[in-house]
Amino acid sequence: MNINLRHIRALQAISREGTFAAAASVLGIVPSALTEVVRQLEASIGAPLFDRAMRPPAITPLGKAFLEESEPLLEGMDRAITRLRQNAGLEQGTLFIGASPSAISELIAPVLATFLEGNPGTRCVLHDDIAESLAELVSTGRLDLAVAGRALRSPDLHQREIMRDPFGLACLAMHPIATQGAVNLADIRVDDLIGLDSSTGTQQLLMRCSEIPEAFHGGRLSAHSTIAQLCMIRAGLGMALLPRNAVALFRDPAIAFVEIADLDLWRTLYLLEPARRTVSGPARAFIALLEERVGLEN
C-alpha cells in the first residue's frame, strides 16, 4: 500500500479539528488538496474512512481504529526527529521528564525553574505517574529521564538514589493530633486512615513494613493516588501515612505532617536514566542541575 506519514497526519488533523476546512488550515494546504490526500488513502485501503452522508463528514469506525493504532507511530517519529535535530545542533528541542507527583513540588519544580531560565529555547513536557510506568517510558525512549521510587530492575534502565524522606502522618492542621510534636502508631485510629492503591510505590512500602499493624491496610477509605488522598484529607475525611515530601505536594498550610515516633520508614527517590542510549543535551543539563540541587539539600 502507498500510505505515508502525510496521509496519517491528514487523517489525524481532520479528526482533531472536526472539518476538512479547519484541518486544511492547520496543515497549511487548501481543502481540495486535503480531500485528494484522503481520497488517495481510501483508494489504497479500498474502503471509505469518512461517512460523507453526514455534514460535516464523520470518520468511520474503520478510520477511528486506524487512528488509534497509528498515533503511537507518529509520536515516536516526532520524538525521533526532535532528537535527531538536537544531535545535529539544529535546535534545543524538547525535554521529556517523568516524575511521581510527590517529587514535583519540592524537587522537580525548583530544578525545572532554573533549567527553563537558562535554556529559553527548550520546551519541557512533564509526565506524572507511578514508578513502574515511568520506568517503562524511560526504557522505551518516550521519556528522557524520570524521578520516582524504585522500579523493577531492567537492563535498559539505570536507577540512582537521589533523595530520602521519612514517613509520617498527614492530617488537617486543625486536628488535635497535629498539635503534638509526634505521635505513636497506637494513637492513630484505623477508621481515620485513607489508604492508597496497592500499585503505588508508597503503598507497597507501607505493606512491607513490619512495624505497621495489618489493620492499617484495610481502612474504610482508599484513594488511587496521593493527590486524591491529600484532597480527601483537606476535605476532612481522614488522615494518611505518607512521605514528608508527599504531604508538601500542594504546600497547603491546612495539611500538617506529624512525625510518628515508633515508625522508622523512609521513601527513597531515584533518578531513572536510560542505560542503553545517550541522553540529549537538554537532559544532561537538567540532570546536572538536579545533582546540584540534591547535593545542596544533602
Radius of gyration: 24 Å
CATH homologous superfamily annotation of the largest domain: Periplasmic binding protein-like II
Number of helices: 10
Level-1 CATH class name of the largest domain: Alpha Beta
- Architecture (CATH level 2) name of the largest domain: 3-Layer(aba) Sandwich
Order of helices and strands: HHHEEHEHEHEEEEHEHEHEEH
Determine the oligomeric state from the structure.
single chain
Domain HTH lysR-type: 3-60
Pfam family, one: LysR_substrate
Organism: Aquamicrobium soli
Protein name: LysR family transcriptional regulator
Describe the secondary structure blueprint for this structure.
Layout: H1 5-17, H2 20-27, H3 31-45, E1 50-51, E2 58-59, H4 61-87, E3 94-99, H5 104-118, E4 123-128, H6 131-139, E5 145-148, E6 157-172, E7 182-183, E8 194-196, H7 201-208, E9 221-223, H8 226-234, E10 240-243, H9 244-247, E11 255-260, E12 266-274, H10 281-297
Parallel strand pairs: 3-4, 3-5, 7-11, 8-9
Antiparallel strand pairs: 1-2, 5-12, 6-10, 6-11, 6-12
Defining traits:
298 residues; alpha/beta; Arc Repressor Mutant, subunit A; D-Maltodextrin-Binding Protein, domain 2; eight-stranded mixed β-sheet; two-stranded antiparallel ribbon; 42% helix; 21% strand; WH_DNA-bd_sf; DNA-binding; transcription regulation; LysR family transcriptional regulator; LysR_subst-bd
What does this protein look like?
The chain is α/β, with parallel strands linked by helices. The protein folds into three domains: 5-87, Orthogonal Bundle (Arc Repressor Mutant, subunit A), CATH 1.10.10.10; 94-162 and 268-297, D-Maltodextrin-Binding Protein, domain 2 (3-Layer(aba) Sandwich), CATH 3.40.190; 165-266, D-Maltodextrin-Binding Protein, domain 2. 42% of the residues lie in helices and 21% in strands. It contains ten helices and twelve strands. The strands form three sheets. Strands 3, 4, 5, 6, 7, 10, 11 and 12 form an eight-stranded mixed β-sheet that branches. A two-stranded antiparallel sheet has the order 1-2. Helix 5 (104-118) links the parallel strand 3 (94-99) and strand 4 (123-128). The longest helix is centred in the N-terminal third of the chain and has 27 residues, at 61-87. It is elongated. The mean pLDDT is 88. Pfam families: HTH_1 (PF00126), LysR_substrate (PF03466). It comes from Aquamicrobium soli. Keywords: DNA-binding, Transcription, Transcription regulation. InterPro entries: LysR_HTH_N, LysR_subst-bd, WH-like_DNA-bd_sf, WH_DNA-bd_sf. Residues 3-60 form the HTH lysR-type domain.
